[in-house]
Amino acid sequence: MPKVGMEEERKTSIIMATIKAIHEKGYAATTMADIAKNAGVSTGLPHHYFGSKAAVFNATISFLLTDLSKQSRKRLLKTKTPMERIDAIIHTNFSDEQFQPSVISAWFAFYVVARTEPGTRRLLQIYHRRLISNLTAEYHRVTDRETAITAAEGTAAMIDGLWLQCVLTTNRPDGSPATMLVQDYVKKCFDSFETTETTQ
Predict the structure, then answer these.
(1) Greater model confidence, 32 or 167
(2) What is the DSSP letter of 30?
(3) How far apart are CA 102 and CA 95, in angstroms?
(4) What number of other Cβ atoms are within 10 A of residue 16's Cβ?
(5) Quick one: DSSP state of residue 99?
(6) Average pLDDT over residues 81-91
């Protein structure tokens, strides 16, 4: 009988192998055989567990999104104010973990594949909704909901846009400058909330 947990270990191994393969060859050129080779398993095993390359890729993105969420929750435990919690979300998205070369390749493929693959597009939509929802919740603690949503959408757009700019325009992506730009935007949002309150 297989050991308890062996299936999950194999799935995780295949997911990590997928990240490696995409980094080495790109999503379009990556085959199930490449993934199996990187994972050190038979060619049929990725098919057995996931069924198709698209399904393996979506499982890989789900894995990365879950990891991103865990990192965010860990940072959020140390926060007290809405601005600190938003700052934790920003730092998570621009952390060193998110700028590992292989992870960059996987995230970039995520955006590209989402244009044509419905399942991947759904994951991207879930990610965006969750990000905006989390940001809205923090902004809404200090302003009305409509203003909070606008600020959250702007913050999310800056996070995604600056992340892409970092990975596409530099050989050694560094999240620090982007982090400061988003922080400045967030501070201006909070300042504007205070100004609105004093003028009402």
Answers:
(1) 32
(2) -
(3) 14
(4) 16
(5) G
(6) 98
CA contacts within 13 A on the Cβ side of 99: 22
pLDDT, position 3: 59
Domains in the chain (CATH in brackets) are: 1-51 (1.10.10.60), 60-199 (1.10.357.10)
Query: Buried b / exposed e across 123-162, counting CB within 10 Å, b at 16+?
Result: bbeebeeebbebbbebbbebbeeebbbebbebbbebbbeb
What phi, psi does 78 have (nearest 5°)?
-95, 5
Best CA proximity match to 120, nearest among 136, 131, 108: 108
Q: Which phi and psi (to 5°) does residue 114 adopt?
A: -60, -20
Q: Is the pLDDT of residue 141 over 50?
A: yes
Task: Count CB-CB contacts under 10 A for residue 101.
Answer: 11
Choose between 144 and 197: higher pLDDT.
144
Quickly state the pLDDT bin for 1 (edges 50, 70, 90): very low
Structure tokens at 82: 């809405």
